[in-house]
Amino acid sequence: MANKKLRITLTRSIIGLSPKQEATVAALGLRRVRQRVTHEDTPTVRGMIAKVPHVLEVSREA
User: Is the whole model's pTM more than 0.85, yes or no?
Assistant: First the structure.
């Protein structure tokens, strides 16, 4: 089975987030609005996305 990947986009500014939420966004590799990164679809990454879903957009990569 092929590894699935997620494309994660920062859609809103991190200004006003708690320090923990800011650290989570940074750990995903996002620094600027509309920046995109690709990560493996793992439980760890899914948990990070679940902590800040209001500032992220997630889609599957083909």
Answer: yes
